[in-house]
Amino acid sequence: MRFSLLFFVLLVASVWVSRALAKDAALEPVSKHGQLAVDGVNLVNQNGEKVQLKGMGLFWSIWMPYYYNKTTVDGIKEYCHSNIVRTMTAVDTISGGYLTDPDYENALVDAVIEAAIEDDMYVLLDWQDFEAENHLEASLEFFDRISKKYGSYPNIIYETYNEPITLEWSSLVKPYHEAVIKTIRANDPDNVIILGTPNYSTRLDLAVADPILDQTNIMYSLHFYAGTQKEANRQVAKDAIDAGLPVFVTEYGTVNADASPPVDEEEAELWYTFMDEYGLSYVNFAISDKDEGAAALIPGTAPENVCREDYLTESGRLVVKHNKA
Ligand SMILES: *[C@@H]1O[C@H](CO)[C@@H](O)[C@H](O)[C@H]1NC(C)=O
Ligand SMILES: *[C@@H]1O[C@H](CO)[C@@H](O)[C@H](O)[C@H]1NC(C)=O
């Protein structure tokens, strides 16, 4: 009797401890956590305590510029229960991007950065490229300008390369990251920099085999779409973390990798359990009103209604439930 009671108490306590990290992200803002850092595999706050960021990513800047302003960021914090928002600066698309109109792209990203600072949120700045090693000069210019202008704010997190298609980590992707890190660090000595990994940010194992050793406050990005990437991909992530690699889920979807439905709720729940257990931060794709499975918003959602309950899709509702869990 006594033993089973003790067992029960221990069970409750261990469940409580493992759940303790996962909590309403909107109540965990920058004023509470301050300057972030990387300690071993963990993202930590100004007191060296583990911190978990949970939030929403905007859609490609070039196709949904109307969400790149404070009205949207307000909604993402308040109604999507987020402490982080991700920008997606288009680089090289048929409709334009940074390579063709840098001033336009800079204005969009600045509007979101300034909104995030006002709203006490972290902001993740993604260079939305698949062949960034071919656009190094533009990327250095982009990150140099932002780190000069905003690098003193603890709100800022850099994501240097969305999704490398190539598998050439050591010869192409790693040298690209090293050049961007050097440029950012000349202006901003401490904000966290997250590095894309090969095969659309799924091959953490290639970074494990040849990590960047002489830098601080860097992490590696993992992307997944629950309908496509499953247990084998979680295993790659677990092995990478066990090997000492700090991991941040800078983009995930509840649907298929091509953004199509259905929401794979069962597999998404397995991912959330894994991420909360390991204390990983995660950012959903996307604040979008496109008629596709990955969109968190129903078609025609105005910035004023972003993340309000009546405007969330099935995917949006699942994501918000976990942001506030
Ligand atoms: C953001 O953009 C939307 C759509 O263009 C507009 O309705 C809203 O007033 C803008 N908000 C701010 C704060 O500029
Ligand atoms: C890349 O990712 C896709 C989708 O997860 C997978 O089917 C494929 O096997 C991966 N290829 C390599 C070389 O890692």
UniProtKB/TrEMBL annotation:
What span is annotated as the signal peptide, if there is one?
Answer: 1-22
Domain (Glycoside hydrolase family) spans 44-290
- GO BP: polysaccharide catabolic process
Q: Which residues form a coiled coil?
A: none
Q: Which InterPro entries match?
A: GH, Glyco_hydro_5, Glyco_hydro_5_CS
Taxonomically, which superkingdom? Answer: Eukaryota
Q: Which UniProt keywords apply?
A: Glycosidase, Hydrolase, Signal
Any one Gene Ontology molecular-function term assigned to this protein's record: hydrolase activity, hydrolyzing O-glycosyl compounds
PANTHER family noted in UniProt:
ENDO-BETA-1,4-GLUCANASE A, GLYCOSIDE HYDROLASE FAMILY 5 DOMAIN-CONTAINING PROTEIN
Annotated family = Belongs to the glycosyl hydrolase 5 (cellulase A) family.
Tell me the protein's name.
Glycoside hydrolase family 5 subfamily 2
Q: Which organism is it from?
A: Apriona japonica
